[in-house]
Design a protein that fits this description.
It holds the Pfam family SMC_N. One of its GO terms (molecular function) is ATP binding. It comes from Streptosporangium saharense. The protein has 570 residues and is of the alpha/beta class. The protein has helices at 38-48, 78-85, 118-125, 134-140, 143-154, 156-184, 186-206, 212-224, 226-241, 254-266, 273-302, 307-327, 331-349, 351-397, 438-441, 444-459, 478-491, 504-507, 534-546, 552-569, and strands at 4-13, 16-22, 27-31, 64-72, 94-102, 107-111, 114-116, 129-132, 404-416, 419-428, 436-437, 466-470, 496-500, 512-516, 529-531. The strands form 3 sheets. Strands 2-1-4-5-6-7 form a 6-stranded antiparallel beta sheet. A 6-stranded mixed beta sheet has the order 8-12-13-3-14-15. The chain has a 3-stranded antiparallel beta sheet with strand order 9-10-11. Helix 6 (156-184) packs antiparallel against helix 14. The two termini are 23 Å apart.
Length: 570
């Protein structure tokens, strides 16, 4: 099942206050008097599929313009999958798309009930609709659009080599950028490597150990205060154990005092268990004091004033402090920096080798791109010949029998994202005329027919489900208008076609005819879009032909147009 637009609701857009369009699967035409709001319908469809939001289009007096579309899609198809990928839903084969534009210029979009960026609608539109207005004709004049049109026509034969080329081109750009960066920064890299090597040399010569600065700080404290430490240890030793040089009666050391206390308690411990426990603790205290006194004596003997060692410690501290100021807050950080620096130096020293590898890869990618670009050129050249012939045949049927469209492919100065080809559509209006670019060789009306011819050609190759044309018949009339109507009807055999037209010859070929009517206040209200039956179509075609709905001559001509169109489609 091919996707199609089933219904469009528009509020507050241009002259449209509120309008509802129910669209047929085939060829739908919109007509109405000048200024009735027909073009706003196309504008609304453009907004629905990600078009540029212009706050000037918001109806005066309205806070915002709103466009809501109901599309029929295959629940298991590509479009439904894209909607589900962004969190939207397709219910019973129907997809709701909504877009609002505030008078201040803010724009919001919803897809399947989920708020999405407007760009998501643009991306989705590639598989759903082709909107052609006057601006779209101008886009066809852009070289990139013309190359894309040819590639689309070339079809599957171009897909595989183009994909291979794009992958190779992407890698080629990456390698080119890397080479340019490495080459441009060669001097900076050399300077960086020299600085890192100097720092590594300083660290290697110093040979710091993790935590060494803490050990040195503690040792410096002991050496700088050796006399005070030894004196304190000796004083404490005497206080605990006594001075052997003193008279025995003068000894009041801690061991002696604790011993006396223990002896006093031991004498009566059997009379009260509480004192027995205290006596045991006094015994433990005596042993502990003796042990501490012994350690103090040993410590006092170990402490020596060593000016030479103190100078060596302070010198080592100066070396470490120099490293800490430059490379880290402690030796652990300095050692980590040295490890990272060594790795970076190895990386910098390997850049020359890397440059060589990248240069070889660049040369190989250039050769591959050249071969792939040549294959793209070959496929495009063949497709260009067929494309030009097919469009020329369509133009002959569109009352341009002498016009000839050609596709000129010229080599670009360098590789591009899509190859090395520059594609330009040219047209010669007459056999004696030179083939000129479309913007020079085609008038406005001719350019409209060229676009229609291109879309008809595409319809047999890779048709878009829905086409929207805004005044594709501008600047033409008579036989050419009939042929445009015939071609639009042919396009509608494989796609949904929605056309805004002023020409009765075009409108006669439609499967569904909608007329846009203004209310008395100049606005288009809900009842202002009417689907016409055959009699209503005859009246509208008569108005378009003669300016008078009830003109008998106009009505007869209108009936004749409808009969011719019906017979042609049958």
């Amino acid at each position: 099942m091919r996707p199609r637009v089933e219904e469009v609701r528009i509020q507050g857009l241009g002259v449209i206050d509120e309008a509802v369009l129910v669209l047929s699967p085939g060829f739908t035409v919109l007509t109405g008097e000048t200024g009735a709001g027909k073009t706003m319908v196309v504008t609304g469809l453009g907004l629905l599929f990600g078009g540029r939001a212009d706050p000037a289009r918001v109806r005066p007096g309205s806070d915002k313009a709103t466009v809501e579309g109901t599309l029929v899609v295959d629940p298991a198809g590509r479009v439904a999958q894209q909607v589900q990928d962004v969190g939207g839903q397709v219910e019973d084969g129907e997809l709701i798309i909504s877009r609002t534009v505030s008078a201040e210029g803010r724009s919001r979009a919803w897809l399947g009930g989920r708020s999405v960026p407007v760009g998501t609608l643009t991306y989705l539109a590639e598989d759903l609709v082709a909107v052609h207005g006057q601006m779209d004709q101008q886009r066809l004049l852009q070289p990139g659009r013309q190359r894309a049109a040819l590639d689309r026509y070339a079809g599957e034969e171009l897909v595989k080599p183009l994909r291979s080329y794009e992958q190779a081109y992407k890698r080629h750009r990456q390698v080119t950028d890397q080479l340019a960066e490495l080459t441009a920064r060669a001097r900076e890299r050399a300077q960086e490597a020299d600085l890192l090597r100097f720092g590594l040399q300083e660290v290697e010569q110093a040979e710091p150990r993790q935590g060494e600065e803490t050990e040195l700080r503690e040792e410096e404290g002991r050496l700088a205060h050796a006399d005070s430490l030894r004196s304190a240890a000796e004083t404490a030793h005497v206080a605990l154990l006594g001075d052997p040089m003193s008279v025995e009666g003068e000894m009041q050391d801690a061991v002696t005092l604790v011993g006396r206390a223990r002896a006093a308690v031991e004498a009566v411990r059997d009379f009260d268990p509480a004192l027995a426990g205290i006596a045991d603790r006094l015994a433990e205290a005596g042993y502990l004091i003796s042990d501490v006194a012994t350690e103090l004596a040993a410590y006092a003997e170990s402490v020596e004033a060593d000016p030479a060692r103190l100078a060596a410690v302070q010198e080592r501290q100066a070396v470490l402090n120099h490293l800490l100021r430059k490379y880290g807050e402690d030796t652990g950080v300095v050692l980590a920096w040295a490890e990272q620096a060594a790795s970076r130096v190895a990386e910098l020293e390997g850049d020359d080798e890397r440059i060589g590898e990248l240069t070889r890869e660049h040369e190989e990618l250039t050769r591959r791109l050249t071969d792939l670009a040549a294959e793209l050129t070959r496929v495009r050249t063949v497709a260009a010949e067929r494309f030009g012939q097919d469009v020329t045949e369509e133009l002959t049927a569109l009352a341009m029998p002498h016009a000839r469209v050609t596709v000129v492919i010229t080599p670009a100065a360098e590789f591009g994202p899509h190859g090395i080809d520059e594609v330009e559509l040219r047209m010669a209006p007459h056999p004696a005329s030179p083939a000129l670019p479309l913007n020079k060789g085609a008038s406005g009306g001719e350019l409209s027919r060229v676009m229609l011819a291109i879309e008809v050609v595409f319809a047999g190759a890779d048709p878009v489900p829905t086409f929207v044309f805004d005044e594709v018949d501008a600047g033409v009339g008579g036989k050419a208008a009939v042929e445009i109507g015939r071609r639009l009807a042919r396009l509608a055999r494989t796609a949904q076609v929605i056309v805004v037209t002023h020409l009765p010859q075009v409108a006669a070929f439609a499967d569904q005819h909608l007329v846009v009517e203004k209310a008395s206040d100049g606005s288009v209200v809900r009842s202002g879009v009417v689907a016409l039956d055959r009699d209503g179509r005859a009246r509208e075609l008569s108005r378009m032909l003669a300016g008078l709905e009830d003109s008998e001559l106009g009505r007869a001509h209108a009936q004749e147009l409808l009969s011719i169109a019906a017979a042609d489609k049958a």
